[in-house]
Design brief:
The protein is an all-alpha fold and 139 residues long. Helix content is 37%, strand content 3%. The chain is built from 3 helices and 2 strands; from the N terminus they run E-E-H-H-H.
Amino acid sequence: MKKSRHYNLNLQEGSDDIDIGGISDNFEALDGIAHAIREDSNSHTADKSNPHGVTKAQIGLGNVTNTEQAAKTDFNAHTADKSNPHNVTKSQVGLGNVTNTEQASKADFDAHKADFDAHTSNKSNPHGVTKSQIGLGNV
């Protein structure tokens, strides 16, 4: 009896009688092949160690750096730290022209509010401003 090229299965030739035993042998062989394919497939799909060598660029992550991220507890501790851990300066946050002068407290302001109101409501030129100083020197 002739055999198949790849799996050595029994092949009927033109004048051969049908050989039930040969057919059974073929089914046994095919069953074994199918089982091996299924086992290989299951093993392959369970393999999570990148068996195809897929790269981050191939799945759209080419610009992502391979940097370890902080644990959630470390991140929360860092964001809760208000002691200027990065040594940020006033210039870096757009306050370079602001002087480092203590401002009056609300209580201090309120204590001098009456003086302030009296001063701002005084229309009798308390600073002695001249007409030249305000651009009216020729009037």
